[in-house]
Predict the 3D structure of the following.
Amino acid sequence: MNYVLFDLEWNQCPQGKARENPRIPFEVVEIGAIKLNEKKEEIDTFHEVIRPLVYHKLHFRTREVIHIEQTELDHARTFSPVVRDFLKWCGEDYKFVTWGNLDLIELQRNMDYYRIRNPFPRPLFYYDLQKMFSLLYDDGKSRWSLEDAVEYLHLDKTRPFHRALDDTWYTAEVMKRMDLTEVSRYESIDYFQLPATREEEIFCDFGSYLKYVTRAFETKEEAMADRGVTSMRCCHCGLPVWKRVRWFSVGTSVYLSLVQCPRHGFIKGKIRMKKSLDGRVFVVKTIKEADEDSVRMIREKKESMKNRRKERRRRKKIR
């Protein structure tokens, strides 16, 4: 199996968000990719600039960031033939590697807009090296910029940043120095192609936590009424659990819960509501062990939300 590391640069509507095409808010104008073998040795590269067909002129911020001239785009090929060549170049047996989760989403969004068949498996697992870097060198939650990661590893900055092939080269250099055996099980899941049915819903055991990705629902209320969404079990043994704090909302898109396993103690659940491309919602639920601080935090938040609701009801009565 090979690793396909890639980076995209994209343009946006020069006239501002109000004039953008909602089906393609970001149009890809450059693809840079490097192929590594299983020993993380470079075996091939791919690079091409792309002539935009939706946002013909460069947004001034795009020009400032990636330092590309309009004339270079005007003489380039369009997205469809370029991406077909890129997909053919990727080969048959490979795993995508990106710095962050946006490039894979925007690649597929552009493919969808130009009606190019999506050949990727469902679910699509890939390595988000930005997340893995944090797991190895930080708290696992923070997200480092590529340039900060390069500086942390004391790599020479011999190339500019913010061009697709250059950023991919830096990503490859960072990856070569990372011990992937420690974090390879923490694959990321692509959310562009959601499960179509309950049977296709994604359930992953990452050892220290469980992740569950649902099909799309019409509303948040419909999602929270689904037993598969709200069910909880121990992330270690899978045994039934006692409910201590039932699901409650924190803001508009996050829900928390606290349960207790008779063998492994407190387990916390977190539901994040995300928007699908068609405007519906899907759920990403994580279940993991809760330490004393997490138990206290969840209980305090539950009490705080309860008090807020009481205060809102009191104010309504006064009015």
